Amino acid sequence: MHGQHDGARGDPIPEAISAQAEEFSRRLTAAGPSRLAAAARASVDGLHALVAQLRPSVEEFRLAIDFLTEVGHYADARRQEWVLFADVLGVSSLIEDLNSPRPAGATPNTLAGPFYRSDVPDTPLGADISRDHKGEPLDVEGRIVGLDGAGIGGATVEVWQANSEGLYENQEPDRQPEFNLRGRFRADPQGRFGFVTVKPKGYTLPSDGPVGRLMSALGLGLERPAHIHFRVSADGFETLTTHIFDRSDAAIGRDAIFGVKPELMAEFRALPPLGGKRKYALDLDLVLCPSPAERTGTSGRR
Ligand SMILES: [Fe+2]
């Protein structure tokens, strides 16, 4: 938040909503333009518009302050209730969309979520990433391609997912082996990759805090449909962070953090049972787009 930006980014200053908002804006103008001042002005205008629309009582205002205070008290090194709040309002997803736009034909980018780990060891293509073999086997075969459909050889493909109970290994380190259901693959020269895993189950976001209570009071759920997370990086291309969702999951239309998009829904196909166990297969293409430098031809590769 330095002053070198034109604070208003060229946007017209909206008419003040209230006498207080107008005076706040006047004081900011006297202090000089900055991105921070523009953000403060827009925030105050938005808040005053909200108050003018809702006309909360003093008691309702106190309840709102109490709620926000409790959200803060729930946030610590292991639990970020503020992020959860932004997630369930769709704000985190909107910010991701605005900051990581993708051209038509490219796989949409989505939030990484809280369970990503960057320290997963290299994993051979075709490996079984289920280290406890609990759940229904799932064969995943995919290709990393560019917008022209050509394979991107050597792309790095990171994968992480919940187990058949909807839990990630770092949520229950005493029950699941380290790096369970995680992999870090290098695509072959044609951009192909594959691995064996188990079918993930969807899960519910933490409901024991103030955000969970708010959602419950609103009659809204905290479910996330079953999915596998991917992060794909390759020289000259935008890094893609995304999820692939099981389109048959009952919660597919009500993902609590608004991550589901049509291009990200896939069929987890049922295969003939294996030794009495149900088995599934998932085929997918993940489409990368060139990095901005490659698109404009202004500089070398990252
Ligand atoms: Fe997830």
UniProtKB/TrEMBL annotation:
Domain named Intradiol ring-cleavage dioxygenases: residues: 140-168
Pfam families, per the entry: Dioxygenase_C, Dioxygenase_N
Sorted UniProt keywords: Dioxygenase, Iron, Metal-binding, Oxidoreductase
Cofactors, names only: Fe(3+)
PANTHER family per the UniProt record, alphabetical: DIOXYGENASE, PUTATIVE (AFU_ORTHOLOGUE AFUA_2G02910)-RELATED, INTRADIOL RING-CLEAVAGE DIOXYGENASES DOMAIN-CONTAINING PROTEIN-RELATED
Family of this protein: Belongs to the intradiol ring-cleavage dioxygenase family.
Name under which the protein is recorded: Protocatechuate 3,4-dioxygenase beta subunit
Protein source organism: Labrys monachus
Lineage summary: Bacteria, Pseudomonadati, Pseudomonadota, Alphaproteobacteria, Hyphomicrobiales
